[in-house]
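Continuing the batch. This is chain 6 of the set; chains 1 through 5 are on the previous pages. Same settings as before, nothing changed between runs. Recording input and output for traceability.
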Amino acid sequence: MTDQERELQGIPSDHGEIHDLTNSQGHGFQCLLYDGLYFPMAPPALTKVGNQLEKYKSIKAAQLNKDDVVVCAYPKCGSHWLFEVLRMLTTGSLHHRKSQLRDHMIDFIFKDGIENLPPPRLLSTHLPLRMLPTQVVEKRLKCIQIRRNPKDACVSMYNNVKNMTLPKTYDGTFAEFTEAFLSGKLPYGSYHSYLTSWAAEVSPEQPVFYLYYEDMKVDPLKCVKDMARFLDLDVTDTFCKDVLEACSFKNLKEKEARDKQEGRYPGFWKKGSDATFYRKGEIGDWKNWFTVAENERFDQIWDEKMKDSGIKFTFSV
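Output for chain 6:
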């Protein structure tokens, strides 16, 4: 990317090496490459963060406490929903807070933002384990990783990026995006690499609770109770049910609408967009997007990449 192109897109010249991941149709992403992972460029309205590369590097040195909890997920696998549920579980309050997921997201707030949050902290991230603060492993912080079937994650991510600034909107078709999703030529790289890298990097001593989005949809009360036990929380079944009602898809979508009206998403969505983090939340919506041929190709590539992982997904109910 030339200096002129950086200037036109509002990208500071000190942000590090920018990789152009556009395809032959000119559709794709500009990403910052760091430690083998593609990072999303900050939208123009958010470039006041300063040197983005140095900010990412700062994350590993962040000071954490033993009782901090980290929500881990590849993009569009349910982290917004899970975060709201866990926030209520860990605070014992059914009150919706004004702060949003991004205010607790390691990838966005970096070292200084992490350390400025009042403890105990509930943090969130799309990063692989090797890029998290070293104290996540050193202090054996509890992590909860939510996994979603890759086809629904792909559809959900496409519907997000085509309405984001990024710093420019994604203009490609769904078929083009699927190719980027499978090849990893997009922010945060490929989903299969995210999953396999976690499996390779995490030790048996690290307390990690693996949650499947589809299980959370089918039997949410069991999932919430299991997470509460993992976190050593003394909560009643009634409170767990109340948390699930407060964090229903309908209620979270209404909360997001209020947040938008109050201006809590500056520079994030393109102007005039009706984009939402809570679009459908269904299991199997991918069937409305993939052609038969696209689905077969997706299966072939995904199954080959994940054949030795032992991870199995539910694609429909």
